[in-house]
Amino acid sequence: MHINRRKFLKDFSLAGAATLSMPFILANPISTIKRNVLVLGGTNFLGPAIVNSLVAEGHNVTLFNRGITNPNLFPKLSKIRGDRENGLHGYRNLTKEKEMWDVVIDVWPQNPNFVKNALTILKDRAKHFVFVSSIAVYANYETIGLDENTATRKGDTFEEGNYNLNKVLCEKAVAEAFPNRFTIVRPGAIVGDRDSGPFGRYLLNRIKNRKEILAPDSNDPVQFIDAQDIGNFIAQCLEKNLGGYFNLVGPASTMGYKDLLIKAKKALKSDVKVLWIDPKFLVEEAKLEPFMEVPFWIPVASDPEPGFYQISNKRAIDHGLVFTDYDKTVKTSYLSFEKKRFIEEEGYDVVFGISEDRENDIIARWKLKKK
C-alpha cells in the first residue's frame, strides 16, 4: 500500500543536520516591496494559485514555459517561451533577457536534471530560489509527527520513475546553488481549483451525484492542502524574506476520514446516503484496497507507516500558513471538477476508486450480511 501512496504524491543527499534545516532570513534580504519574480511553469494546477497570490500582492511576475498548457491564462503578464526538456538550449529565450530576478519559483520538476539546468542559467541572475517539493522526500512514514528535520531518502543519482528520491535530489541541487537563499516547500496531497486528482473527480463527485455510497466506518486521520494556501504561503515567504524547509499539509487541526465525508456532504448540500461499513469487511471480504480504491482512507491501526497522514505542519503555521475553510475548498474542488477546469495528463495510469457496479455489489453484500 505504501508504494502506491507514493505514486499518488507524484500526482502531487539528506536535508542535512537539524540546524541546517531551520527557517532563516535570507542572507541578503530583498528590500523592495514589489518583487521581480520569474515563475517556471505557472499555468497548470498549482502554478496558477501561486501566480494569483503573487499578482494579488503587487509583484511583477513573468512566466517561463512552453505556452502549451492553458496558454490564455494571465494575458497581462509577461511571458518568455522555452522548453525545459530541451536541456540548456531550451532556455535560449531566457538567456537573451538580461533581467535580474528577485525571486525564481520552480513549480513543476521531479527531474533533478531539469532543476540543475535552471539553476545553471539563473544562479547568478536571481537573489532567491523557491522550489515546490513534496512530503515524498522523507525516508519513511513510520513515525507520527514527521517534521522538516526528519531524514530524507538517501541517494545521489537520478533514477527514472523514482519520484521520492528525485525530489530529494532536486532539493539538494537548489540548496547547493542558492545557499541560505532558498525556500523549499513540501506539500502533501493538493486539492482545490484545477485539481485532476481523486478528491473532486471521485470522492466529491460520488457524494454529489450518487444516491448511496459506501464508506468505511472509520475516522482515521487525513491530510491535504488547498492549492491556494500554498500560493499564499509562498507569497508570505517573499514578504518576510523567509527561507528554509516547510511541510505544507493541512488542515490546521486533526481531521478524520469520516469527518471529511460528512462535512463534504453538508458543504455540497447532498442527499446521498452514506452506508458506513465495517472496515474489516471492506478489506478482508470485499478485498478493497485502502487509499487506492478508497481514496484518502488509510486504516492507521494496520498501517506500517502511520505517519503518512500525520505529518507536522507546526513550522509552517508558526510562520504564517493559513488554511482555507474546508467548506470552501470542497465547493471550489467540486466546481473545478464540474467545469472540467483541469488537465488530464497523457499516460496517467494511477486509477483511484472503484466502479459504480462494484460499489453497488459490495453494498448489496453488506446489506445481506447484516440481515
Secondary-structure blueprint:
Layout: H1 2-10, E1 24-25, E2 36-40, H2 46-56, E3 60-65, E4 78-81, H3 92-96, E5 101-106, H4 112-122, E6 126-132, H5 163-177, E7 182-187, E8 190-191, H6 198-209, E9 212-216, E10 221-226, H7 227-240, E11 242-248, E12 250-256, H8 257-267, E13 273-277, H9 279-285, H10 314-318, H11 326-338, H12 356-370
Parallel strand pairs: 2-3, 2-5, 3-4, 5-6, 6-7, 7-11, 8-10, 9-13
Antiparallel strand pairs: 1-11, 10-12
Give an account of the 3D structure.
β6, α5 and β7 form a beta-alpha-beta unit. Helix content is 35%, strand content 18%. It has two domains: 217 residues, Rossmann fold; 121 residues. The two termini are 32 Å apart. The longest helix is centred in the middle third of the chain and has 15 residues. The chain has twelve helices and 13 strands.
Considering the chains and any ligands shown, give keywords for the structure:
12 helices, alpha/beta, eight-stranded mixed β-sheet, Rossmann fold, 371 residues, three-stranded mixed β-sheet, 2 domains
